[in-house]
């Protein structure tokens, strides 16, 4: 295994005295453990939200699309804020810790919100804000703790640990509900306790990136952050990530389409994300290593091809449910081939002192367009019908994937 020590990275602290180098450093594993624990907490709460809002509160697909888009897109602006402040203050760990802590407090907020949809919406917005603030500094720490040539593997390990938490979350929630005789407050309180453990792990085990001596440091301005777009390769990655996000069906809608097409009972709905998470968990590391070997952009686009096929599977006959399983498997392949791989492709293009800001730009563009995608798909479903909406989504995604393959970014580690 290998650790980067180039370009001033503090990953050198993880080099064993024997001189043996590792591809995945202790810092990456510690960050993965934080994400694992935090995702258990998060998925305990979010597993049943789509079904609750649509079937429980009777929202139309368009109304749900707006809420789902806001839920996903509320992180867009705060990602930029979190990334910029982390670079400006050179406090990646501190800013990430604030984000994780805010999300943890949100679980207590759910206990206090009761049945008020306004209060629940505010608490969920706070939780998403915490996620948005922490994401770019965390991913920047991963890139700064790894060698550019092995970033795909490093992100694969991190995302695999993160996804294992997402896999366990719904199961833990079901166990807590069973033991507490259906008490949702017990789920929220347990979720808070688990999230608090994640914050403690971050404080104790994760090493911050060591900035340059104060005399050599320059504060990162907003103009400098915006200036990153002038770099052709990075600009193209940002543009294509945003365009692909605009034609990507959200997780919640994909699960709702599965539920409607195959008329799954409400009791089985929370288990659908486990199918995606299980495949993602198995493939995150292999796909990360594959992206290091054959090119990250190829793997990234291949993941979107898998999503196109998954959407087409949703249009097939409902007999037997084989296509439903195929759609979930391909959905997991999509995430394994895209989530961490995109960050691994963009990270080496950015200066160390602007790593969090640059990654936040990529993430913000993607989050913003995915918010619009949810609204557009909800509108299409409401205006036309489910079949037509899915067919248009699959066709639009296929067109953008082909265009991204032809007009790929310039020189990258992809």
UniProtKB/TrEMBL annotation:
PROSITE patterns in alphabetical order: MFS (PS50850)
Main location: membrane
Keywords: Membrane, Transmembrane, Transmembrane helix
Subcellular location: Cell membrane
One Gene Ontology cellular component: plasma membrane
Superkingdom of origin: Bacteria
Domain Major facilitator superfamily (MFS) profile: 27-412
Molecular functions per Gene Ontology: transmembrane transporter activity
Keyword Phosphoprotein belongs to the record: no
TM stretches of this protein: 108-126, 163-181, 187-206, 237-258, 264-285, 386-407
Membrane topology per record: Multi-pass membrane protein
Protein's name according to its UniProt entry: Major facilitator superfamily (MFS) profile domain-containing protein
